[in-house]
Specification:
about 35% helix, about 20% strand, four-stranded antiparallel β-sheet, alpha+beta, 4 helices
């Protein structure tokens, strides 16, 4: 459950040999933007993604989701529901996974990448050599 009064949370380092992945996504005006940043246990950037998608089914997704909720189907037939199941399936490859909701202000790099994708209608990925545009936020958000 998302807290009513979210607070800025202090960055927590993952245990040794773990990878911390922060993600931020939004759907605005029939567009989806996603930002992702992965860091090692020392807080060093391993990779990141800014992803832009033009949605074609926003109304259909809302209607199908509403119908599923009304009918109380156990199976979510929306594209969004399918993607969630796909993500959960991918998480099964890991021996240990912990998922937390955090406030947007505690997730600034992923938020910045998401905004970049939406504002520029672009998709980019990077490894340890990340874009200079996010360097200051990477340093502020580092643990």
């Amino acid at each position: 459950m998302i807290p009513n009064n979210p607070r800025i949370q202090k960055c927590e380092k993952p245990p040794c040999d773990f990878v911390k992945i922060n993600v931020d996504a939004a759907i605005i005006d029939n567009m989806t933007g996603l930002g992702l940043i992965a860091r090692d246990s020392d807080g060093l950037v391993l990779c990141g993604i800014a992803d832009y998608r033009k949605n074609r089914m926003e109304g259909g997704v809302r209607r199908a989701s509403l119908v599923n909720r009304i009918k109380k189907d156990r199976e979510d037939t929306t594209i969004f529901g399918y993607r969630i199941k796909e993500i959960i399936g991918l998480l099964d490859f890991f021996t240990e996974v912990k998922i937390n909701w955090i406030n947007q202000m505690s997730n600034r790099v992923a938020d910045c990448l998401r905004k970049l994708a939406l504002n520029k209608h672009c998709t980019l990925s990077f490894d340890v050599e990340y874009p200079y545009d996010i360097h200051e936020l990477v340093m502020i958000d580092s643990c």
